[in-house]
């Protein structure tokens, strides 16, 4: 068992949260959202053999930068946990876990869909939250600008909250701050939470690209620029930054 899980637990603290933190734009914004609200916040990531492993590496530097640049949040930021879920990678044969081209499937879902991924993430996160004494679980899933993954939908998350609470006899609250907002509003939320410094940190340090590309030179950060995740991120940035420029010129 990783040392951090054996460490003293948070205690049954109403104000403790666990954030599903992948190192991407959405989960970094959710982490800031949680740090603004809860007294104690821990993070969890999952290693399932994803092609975009660069995001797992980015996680550590993002956490370090948050501690350095936002001392108020840094004081609330507790341990980070990484759970080995390679079994999920073995079960999936998708464009996120094997070297095949990203494409749409006949049923309208992209072949980046890893069946049940978020259900498994939430189950493991809840088991960890149980051990750590955290009541609040925060995830960056979104039904507005998304790839059609059924396990990102609001109804799925609400059903999971009921199932997890029944199955673990707890009163976890699953928070989805991005559920009903688009990518441009996710940038705006970051600005509202942490100003230009947080927007800059997210732009420069987070990874969203499905291919794990570290190509730079984009206004919106690093990535291949052509995979669905990069396209969503770029479109959101263009809309956000155009509105910012209009506001400045008025
Ligand atoms: Zn990409």
Description:
Strand 4, helix 7 and strand 5 (173-175) form a beta-alpha-beta unit. It is built from nine helices and five strands; from the N terminus they run αβαβααβααβαβαα. Strands 3-2-1-4-5 form a five-stranded parallel β-sheet, with helices on both faces. The chain starts with a helix and ends with a helix. The model is unreliable at 3-12 (pLDDT under 50). The chain is α/β, with parallel strands linked by helices and 250 residues long. The relative contact order is 0.16. It has helices at residues 3-6, 25-37, 54-69, 71-74, 86-91, 117-132, 154-168, 183-205, 228-249, and strands spanning 13-20, 40-47, 77-84, 134-138, 173-175. The longest helix is centred in the C-terminal third of the chain and has 23 residues, at 183-205. The protein is globular, with a radius of gyration of 18 Å. It has a single domain (14-208), classed as Rossmann fold (3-Layer(aba) Sandwich). Zinc ion binds next to helix 9.
What is the approximate shape? globular
Task: Provide the number of structural domains.
Answer: 1
Helix content: 40-55%
Identify the bound ligands. zinc ion
Rg (CA only): 18 Å
What is the number of strand segments?
Answer: 5
- The portion of residues forming beta strands comes to 5-15%
Helix and strand run: HEHEHHEHHEHEHH
List unreliable stretches of 5+ residues: 3-12
What does the largest sheet look like?
5 strands, parallel
The N- to C-terminal Cα distance equals 56 Å
- Please identify the top-level CATH class: Alpha Beta
Mean pLDDT: 87
């Amino acid at each position: 068992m990783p040392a951090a899980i054996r460490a003293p637990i948070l205690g049954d603290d109403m104000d403790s949260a666990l954030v599903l933190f992948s190192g991407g734009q959405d989960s970094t914004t959710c982490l800031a959202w949680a740090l603004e609200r809860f007294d104690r916040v821990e993070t969890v990531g999952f290693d399932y053999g994803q092609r975009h492993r660069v995001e797992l590496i980015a996680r550590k530097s993002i956490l370090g930068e948050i501690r350095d640049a936002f001392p108020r949040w840094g004081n609330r930021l507790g341990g980070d946990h990484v759970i080995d879920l390679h079994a999920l990678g073995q079960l999936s044969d998708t464009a996120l876990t094997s070297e095949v081209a990203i494409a749409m499937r006949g049923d309208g879902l992209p072949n980046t869909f890893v069946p049940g991924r978020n259900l498994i993430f939430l189950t493991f996160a809840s088991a960890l939250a149980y051990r750590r004494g955290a009541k609040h679980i925060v995830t960056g899933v979104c039904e507005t600008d998304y790839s059609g993954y059924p396990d990102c939908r609001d109804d799925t998350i609400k059903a999971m909250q009921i199932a997890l609470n029944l199955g673990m006899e707890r009163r976890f609250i699953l928070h989805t701050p991005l559920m009903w907002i688009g990518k441009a509003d996710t940038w705006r939320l970051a600005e509202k939470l942490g100003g230009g410094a947080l927007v800059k940190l997210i732009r420069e340090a987070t990874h969203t690209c499905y291919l794990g590309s570290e190509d730079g030179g984009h206004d919106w950060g690093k990535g291949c620029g052509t995979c669905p995740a990069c396209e969503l991120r770029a479109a959101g940035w263009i809309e956000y930054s155009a509105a910012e420029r209009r506001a400045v010129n008025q």
